[in-house]
Fold each of these.
Amino acid sequence: MKRIKAAVVGAGIYGSHHINAYLNNDKTELVGVCDLDPKKLDMVKKEYSINTYTDLEEMIKKEKPDIISIATPDPYHFGPAKTAIENNIDVLVEKPLATSRKECEELIKLAEAHNVKVGVDFHKRWDPASINLKLELEKEDTGKIVRGYVSMDDIIDVPVNWLPWSRNSSPAYFLGVHCYDLIRYLIEDEVTEVYAVGSKSVLSGMGIDTYDNVQAILKFSKGSTWTVENSWILPDKFPKSNDGRMFIVTEKKYLRSDSQNRGVEFFSDTKTQTPNSYFITYRNNKAFGFGIDPINDFTDSIISGEKFMANAVDGLEATKIADAVHESIITGKPVKLER
Ligand SMILES: NC(=O)c1ccc[n+]([C@@H]2O[C@H](COP(=O)([O-])OP(=O)(O)OC[C@H]3O[C@@H](n4cnc5c(N)ncnc54)[C@H](O)[C@@H]3O)[C@@H](O)[C@H]2O)c1
């Protein structure tokens, strides 16, 4: 069988997982990696013998990829995604699809015009815990969903040292979109109204002008209400780079899920670590887990022509909620979502 030619734009922390996934998938051939930073490309070249580019148009012209993964920083997905779509290439975009409703809508229009598939890497949909929650919610005896709570937080090292661009994103765009998307997916309902508050102090005091914490109340059309909390300032001593919880109250049940309680704990005199071994684990240089599954599923969806689990409209809806969260923080008022 002819392999699908794949390329990756953005060879940073998460782009490296896309690179690994395509290199280890029998159905794909990684034909190129593009990054604006030559140092990142040198690191890729050192590890793998792959053609690298600083110019996306040049990579497309020379390598003619069938699919492109876009793993550039949150605010810079739009440009490379637009270029790929205009060249009739299917794209898998890291979350968020883009950091404004307008950009998402433009990408959707372009994708329709060029008849290309756009996937968004909302990998929480692939988390075995989410799959279990969805199966339980779908049971007839669960009753109507009444209320939910979701948190997803990062240690402060993430915005301060991992992401040089964190000031151009926020806990809502980096973490919140995962939560907004997961709720939509689990309960198959749309947000009608958002009220949010946010605070800036610790990060802005370090010269990074973004929110430390964002708390949002989301009202859904079928009547359930949800609280979503996202912080970027957990202490670095927390034993994992992030933390997350989900509690759901239905008319008949109480469901709880906890990303911290994944069964592996390491203790030493100096450190405690609790890796989420279901997310991304490397063995013999091959990555596997629910952080990798969507990348392989996207290839499968291109081969089979079947729907990919998270598409551009899902990307748009999550960004619309994040935009409304920001608007509500700034105005101090609830924001209604029109569709
Ligand atoms: N870090 C994580 O844990 C994580 C997890 C899931 C998803 N993501 C998402 O993946 C995306 C990338 O995040 P990251 O953590 O890998 O960031 P990163 O800063 O480590 O990597 C981004 C890379 O993109 C490159 N770049 C920037 N603009 C570019 C452009 N126009 N063309 C080509 N390359 C460009 C940068 O030089 C950098 O190497 C983000 O949207 C993020 O939300 C990150």
Amino acid sequence: MHFQLLVVLALTGGALATKFCSKGDAAIVMEQWSALYNQDASGMTKLLIGRQIFDSLFDRVPAAVGLFNRVNVADRNSGGFSAHIMRVIGGLDISINSLGAQCTLSSITSHLLAQHVVRDGVTKGGFAMMGEVLVSSLEQLVEDFNPDVWRNCLMPILNAMSKDLPA
Ligand code: HEM
């Protein structure tokens, strides 16, 4: 009886611990992210990181550009599009920094999901592509980058943010 209870607890505990990624992977990702994106990084550095991510997304999926007309994607250096980039990168920052707090991270991804469900044309596929773009962009910016570790943590975040979107 005790043994069965222990097995159930171990399995449930394991499942909870891996809803996003393992504690070990989360610790690496949070530490490497904070070395890149921290309070000492200037607003311009943060904007450049975000701009590189969006440029790379649009290179791979040119059809996605039109989704951002409202925020003046026609001029990618405009205040409107720069502000959009900062909102997205800010959402990513809060999510990564919450990898150690699963309930908080679940609330954040639910909120981001709700903000995307109302946008026509935003798909799960777009988020999967964003995941690939993030991995390949961050590979150039993060020291000792391990793509598997980053994928383990980023993909579940992006999946949670897009789980109710059309394929
Ligand atoms: C790391 C992943 C992402 C994060 C953290 C993120 C975050 C955000 C945030 C914070 C907003 C502003 C929401 C608001 O103020 O209402 C937003 C808007 C938006 N996002 Fe995302 N996003 C992500 C990925 C994507 C992807 C992959 C797409 C589509 C391919 C997308 C499409 C949009 C669109 C169309 C808007 C509305 C822009 C507007 O204001 O007109 N997002 N996103």
